[in-house]
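Hey, can you fold this one?
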Amino acid sequence: MADNRAIGVFDSGLGGLTVAREIMKLLPRENIVYFGDTGRVPYGTKGRDTIRKYALQDERFLLSHDVKMIVAACGTVSSVAADTAEVLPVPFIEVVSHSVRAAVSATKNGKIGILATSATIGSGAHKRQILELLPSAQVIESAGTLLVPIVEEGWTALDDAVAIETLRRYLKPMIDAGIDTLILGCTHFPVLSSIIRKILGETVTLINMGEATALAIEKCLEQSGSLNDGTNSAQYKFYASDKTEAFKSTVNILLGSYNKDFEIEQVDIEKL
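Sure. Predicted structure:
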């Protein structure tokens, strides 16, 4: 039986919009409710109990919109608070395990790079799961601390000198190690894919967490018979816990061609 309710997506900020974009691309009939906890970002600097509390609040908000599935488009939540799924009445999809499986399937020489935020690298989630699936793998990690602000500044053009030089520095250990697969371990980073491809060359496979997650969502919905069979255009609703001056420009960068000047409603997540 088809299920025309929305897919709920949440992130500690706006980076998860790149995951929403991949869902829009792969599953154009699916409705989406997105919540970005921009008032409490980043989650990566918080303790485990606080992250779990925030994740449960975010999930409760999405459930109030009668979603049929919840997607944690947040590397930190996926790494340290995925167990919140145990109390949910709907399926839960996170972004780490699916990108890891894609990377392990793609690698030919067993040398896998992880480019992520310092918090995600510090959790060790990607590396741990890679080695569980491929014990012989060589994992090279790099914390791209400056990349999120670079993306949000809009310095993402193929010839942008700041982005190119910064990425060269972060990617050098991986180039030296001879990786053939790279996990883009932060939802902001797919926006930089063209520059990363230019630096690494065509022989390195880039794993986009959003793409891997969207494929997992499609499989889950197909298996449960819950795909949207409606003929109407998909409806997208966006919520955030705070807004900044750069809010709209960031949304435009992350959604790309899928940005249709959507209205974004501000909510007080603490009161819900």
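The two ends are 31 Å apart (CA to CA). Let me know if you want another pass with a different chain boundary.
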